[in-house]
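To whoever is on call:

I kicked off a structure prediction for a single chain this morning and the downstream step that reads the tokens threw a length-mismatch warning. I double-checked the sequence; it's 195 residues and nothing unusual in it as far as I can see. Pasting both halves so you can look.
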Amino acid sequence: MKQRPAHSIVLTLPFLVAACFVHAAELTFTVTDASGKPVPQAVVAVFDGKSAPTTNTATGKIIQKNRQFNPDVTVIQTGTAVNFPNEDTVRHHVYSFSPAKKFELKLYTGVATNPIVFDKAGVVSLGCNIHDSMVGFIYVVDTPLFAKTDANGSATLSVPAGAVSYQVWPAGKLKFALEQKIKVEGNATVKVALP
């Protein structure tokens, strides 16, 4: 059996490494408000026209504890099912009248019997019929490329190179505050100043 010369392997490695960098980049989003302060829990979603949402079988969880939704801001991909376990000693009545998902989980403790499937993109505002101070938001996006900013208003996503668009929602807003198109050519920081 004839062996391939070692140099032919070495020559192909740089090509493979270069190809990886052409097809993906790290985008770090820094989100600030109009005064320049970081915006934590802002939702960032990137749409590249290539990463089509797949049939999602994931299950998420939003816990009710201390009469609060935890987390109070959640971002999920279309098709995700979410459980709403109640860890309080009082009963809760979780509901949403949002166009993206209308549902109602009548008074219960423990875990409601079935998770709720969020099959339409949009913002879902959560409430409790018994405790008016309980408010939460679920951002349902038609892309697998999404993140929530940290306490410094920062979030990093690995995205394909090429033309993409992104949307940013500040926590608690029902409509996205900013939508832009950019060209991704390599790792970059995207500074987003919300109005």
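Update from on-call: the warning came from a stale cache, not from the record. Cleared it. Sanity check on the structure: Residues 91 and 108 are 5 Å apart (CA to CA).
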